């Protein structure tokens, strides 16, 4: 069972967390294919047929991205709009995602306490990002629980303690993928 990780990070060179996750995934090429959307489509024009073939060549599908205003970066939104087409992903003949395990792995720039009923967001990560679950379930995909890492405070600096948290998040991410995606 091979999992396609669709990475949507518009500034990967500046990312501490997503780059560390990629380094961990790279150790397991027999299980994970990482597809970097912003690298593949610097002009923003998505090759729909190529993307659909890539999805069809994998058993599972995970969208990895930093959360921007309770959503994904713009190119991933465009990917959803363009690639998950009627007749391929949904509709009476759209069965490409039917039964395929899918999920999201996100990094958030706010503490976990903010993503509670009592926190500043007032909702959990799963509740805030529910449109991804709804979209994929609409395509009859087998939705799996999201993986979320509440990132280090970039204003506080990156020290040994922060480095340890990021390293642990990479190990936790891999364990999550193994548990839910085989």
UniProtKB/TrEMBL annotation:
Domain annotation Flavodoxin-like fold: ranges: 1-175
InterPro entries tied to this protein: Flavodoxin_fold, Flavoprotein-like_sf, KefG/KefF
This protein's UniProt keywords: Oxidoreductase
Pfam families the record matches: Flavodoxin_2 (PF02525)
Statement: the UniProt record of this protein carries the keyword Lipid metabolism: no
One MF annotation (Gene Ontology) recorded for this entry: electron transfer activity
PANTHER family associated with the record: GLUTATHIONE-REGULATED POTASSIUM-EFFLUX SYSTEM ANCILLARY PROTEIN KEFG
Name of the protein in question: NAD(P)H oxidoreductase
Source organism of this protein record: Eikenella longinqua
């Amino acid at each position: 069972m091979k999992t396609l990780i669709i990475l949507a990070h518009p500034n990967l060179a500046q990312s501490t967390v997503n780059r560390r996750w990629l380094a961990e995934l790279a150790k397991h090429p027999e299980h994970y294919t990482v597809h970097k959307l912003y690298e593949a489509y610097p002009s923003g024009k998505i090759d729909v047929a190529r993307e659909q073939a890539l999805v069809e060549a994998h058993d599972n599908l995970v969208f990895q991205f930093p959360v921007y205003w309770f959503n994904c970066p713009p190119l991933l939104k465009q990917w959803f709009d363009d690639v998950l087409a009627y007749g391929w992903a949904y509709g009476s003949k759209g069965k490409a995602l039917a039964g395929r395990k899918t999920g999201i792995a996100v990094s958030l720039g706010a503490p976990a306490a903010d993503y509670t009923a009592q926190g500043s967001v007032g909702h959990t990560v799963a509740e805030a990002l529910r449109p991804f679950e709804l979209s994929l379930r609409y395509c009859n995909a087998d939705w799996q629980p999201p993986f979320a890492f509440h990132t280090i405070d970039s204003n506080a600096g990156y020290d040994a303690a922060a480095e340890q948290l990021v390293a642990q998040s990479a190990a936790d991410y891999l364990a999550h993928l193994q548990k839910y995606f085989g």
